[in-house]
# Entry
Amino acid sequence: MSTTTKAKQKPWTADELCRLPEGWRYEIDEGELIITAPAGFEHNDITGNTFVRLWQFVHDHRLGKVLTNETGVYLHHDPDTLRGLDVAFFSNERLVRITDRKGYPDVPPDLAVEVHLPDERDMQRKVQQYLAAGVRSVWVIDPRKRTLTQHRPGKQPALIAEMGATVQEPVLPGFECRLRDLFGEE
# Structure
């Protein structure tokens, strides 16, 4: 389980994150530093399962790149908002717009996936920030409720709650998996 601590001082910038100690997860929300403990086993299991299914589909169809491991992405500048995504899909069209591949991209992914931690209070804020930045689809996977909610601009959230239900993603036409696959259940 992780806890989130907000450290309030001058507005933080993404460039300052490299000076912070390793072993924690950092995000910036409109200049405010958010410090989160490392994710636990279940969180990483679900993240890994999701990554593998998305990566295989994207790789097989040569659609772009799927990244994981808290990939930092700028959603806004001045003040900075930098979020660390659990899983992110960048289409080939968006990849060519990323000029610096060593740092944090200014280009939002097409699909952002967040595995919801029990004490994470700002998930709805994150979803709204992703959509406002141009993310085409956001998945919020809730391990406690065993659900996946899909968010898209201008549409009502779609809840998938049955383990045998098929997850499809319009951003990735033809992609399908069962909800239980993301939770690692047979």
Notes: Residues 39-182 form a domain with the tt1808, chain A fold (CATH 3.90.1570.10). The mean pLDDT is 90. The chain has one domain: 39-182. The two ends are 25 Å apart (CA to CA).
